[in-house]
C-alpha cells in the first residue's frame, strides 16, 4: 500500500487499514503504535479515541456497491484522526503518511453507506467474516434482492440520523364495498434532541361505525394502543390533511406502509397533501421531502427473498418477535407496521441482523433464510435450541 496525501473525503476498507496500512509505513518504529490502536480489542474499548459520546461501541460503516456486495469501512476522517492522535500522544516522531488515494472509496462509488456499531472484539471479527460470506451468497441472485438490500441500508442510515418524522398509516375498508372507508390508523415517531417521541391514533368513520365485515376479521372496536375516535365522513379529508401537514413541520417525512399500493391510492382519493411523494430513497439522509418506506420490501431484504413474493404483516411481525394481535384494525396495523420498521431500521446491517435473529435458519450457500413453519406460524431460534 503506497502512501500519499488524500484527494477526497471518503472511506477506506477496514481490511486495507487493518492489514495493509502499517506495512506501507517508511519508519519501522511507527508500525507497532499503529497496529496497537487498530487492534480488535483496542477498537472496541470504551477509551478508544474514535469512540463517540453516547455510542456503545466503535462506529464503523457498511458500504453497499452496485452489485449488492458490502464492505466494512473506516471513514477517511477516522483514518486522519488516528494518525494525528498517535503523533500527539508521542507514539510517533512524525505524522505517519495516510493511505494512498487509490484506496479511497468515495460516496458516489457506493449505493449506500450506513453506520454499524461493534462493542466486542468477537463481534467485530464475526462481522468481517460474515460480510465476506454473504457476498459469496449474493453472487448471481439478480438485481431485485440487491435493490431491496440497498433500500434496507438506506433506511437504516436515515433512521440513525434521527431527523424528520416516520409515520405508519393504514386504512380499512368494508370488505363488501371497498369504496366505503371504515377506519384510519397512524403511528408516528419523531426525534427531539436525539430522543424518540411516539404518537398514534385510530379513527372510525362515524357513519359506518355499525358496518361489519363478512370475509375478513372485524376488529375495528379492538384498538389496543389508546382510545378510538369517531370522525364524521365529511371531516376525514381535513383531519388527514392536518395530520400530514403537521408532520412536514419536523423535516423529511417517511411514510411507512406494509405494501403501499392500496393505501396510497386511498390517500390520493382523500386529496391528502402528498405531492412529490417518492419511492426513490436518496443516497444520503434528506433534510426535506416525502418518502415511501415499505416494510414488506425491507423484510424481503432481511429474509433474502429473491422473488417478487413478500410476506404479510402478521408473519413479518412474528418473525421479528413482535407478538401482534387484533390485526385488521387500522390502528393496530399501523402500530405493528411502525414496530416492524423500527425493529429493522434501528438494528444491525442486514447480514449481521439476519445472523442474530435467525442463526439456525441461515444457509451456508443460499441467500434466503429458511423457516420451519406450522400453519403459517414461525418457529423461533430459541424454540429450535430448546
TrEMBL record:
GO terms for cellular component: nucleus. Pfam families: DEDDh_C (PF21762). Residues 363-386 are annotated as: Disordered. This is Gfd2/YDR514C-like C-terminal domain-containing protein. InterPro entries: Gfd2/YDR514C-like, Gfd2/YDR514C-like_C, RNaseH-like_sf, RNaseH_sf. Residues 165-344 form the Gfd2/YDR514C-like C-terminal domain. GO terms for molecular function: nucleic acid binding. Gene3D superfamilies: Ribonuclease H-like superfamily/Ribonuclease H. It comes from the Eukaryota. Residues 374-386 have a biased composition (Acidic residues).
Amino acid at each position: 500500500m503506497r502512501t500519499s496525501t488524500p484527494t477526497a473525503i471518503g472511506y477506506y476498507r477496514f481490511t486495507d487499514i487493518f492489514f495493509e496500512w502499517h506495512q506501507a509505513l517508511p519508519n519501522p518504529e511507527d508500525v507497532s503504535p499503529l497496529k496497537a490502536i487498530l487492534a480488535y480489542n483496542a477498537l472496541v474499548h470504551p477509551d478508544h479515541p474514535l469512540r463517540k459520546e453516547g455510542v456503545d461501541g466503535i462506529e464503523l460503516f457498511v458500504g453497499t456497491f452496485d452489485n449488492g456486495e458490502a464492505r466494512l469501512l473506516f471513514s477517511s476522517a477516522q483514518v486522519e484522526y488516528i494518525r494525528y492522535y498517535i503523533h500527539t500522544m508521542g507514539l510517533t516522531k512524525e505524522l505517519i503518511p495516510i493511505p494512498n488515494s487509490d484506496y479511497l472509496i468515495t460516496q458516489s462509488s457506493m449505493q449506500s453507506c450506513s453506520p454499524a456499531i461493534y462493542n466486542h472484539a468477537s463481534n467485530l471479527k464475526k462481522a468481517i467474516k460474515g460480510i465476506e460470506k454473504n457476498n459469496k451468497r449474493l453472487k448471481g441472485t439478480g438485481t431485485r434482492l440487491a435493490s431491496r438490500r440497498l433500500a434496507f441500508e438506506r433506511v437504516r442510515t436515515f433512521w440513525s440520523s434521527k431527523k424528520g418524522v416516520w409515520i405508519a398509516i393504514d386504512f380499512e375498508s368494508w370488505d363488501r364495498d371497498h369504496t366505503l372507508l371504515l377506519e384510519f390508523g397512524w403511528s408516528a415517531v419523531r426525534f427531539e434532541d436525539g430522543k424518540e417521541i411516539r404518537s398514534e391514533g385510530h379513527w372510525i368513520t362515524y357513519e359506518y361505525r355499525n358496518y361489519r365485515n363478512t370475509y375478513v376479521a372485524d376488529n375495528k372496536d379492538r384498538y389496543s394502543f389508546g382510545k378510538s375516535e369517531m370522525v364524521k365522513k365529511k371531516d376525514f379529508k381535513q383531519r388527514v390533511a392536518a395530520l400530514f401537514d403537521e408532520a412536514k413541520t419536523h423535516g423529511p417525512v417517511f411514510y411507512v406502509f406494509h405494501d403501499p399500493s392500496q393505501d396510497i391510492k386511498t390517500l390520493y382519493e382523500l386529496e391528502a397533501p402528498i405531492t412529490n411523494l417518492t419511492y426513490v430513497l436518496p443516497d444520503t439522509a434528506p433534510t426535506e421531502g416525502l418518502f415511501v418506506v415499505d416494510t414488506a420490501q425491507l423484510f424481503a431484504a432481511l429474509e433474502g427473498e429473491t422473488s417478487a413474493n413478500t410476506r404479510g404483516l402478521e408473519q413479518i411481525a412474528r418473525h421479528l418477535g413482535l407478538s401482534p394481535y387484533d390485526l385488521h384494525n387500522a390502528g393496530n396495523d399501523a402500530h405493528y407496521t411502525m414496530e416492524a420498521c423500527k425493529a429493522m431500521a434501528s438494528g444491525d446491517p442486514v447480514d449481521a441482523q439476519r445472523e442474530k435473529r435467525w442463526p439456525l435458519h441461515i444457509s451456508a450457500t443460499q441467500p434466503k433464510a429458511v423457516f420451519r413453519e406450522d400453519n403459517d406460524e414461525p418457529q423461533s431460534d430459541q424454540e429450535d435450541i430448546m
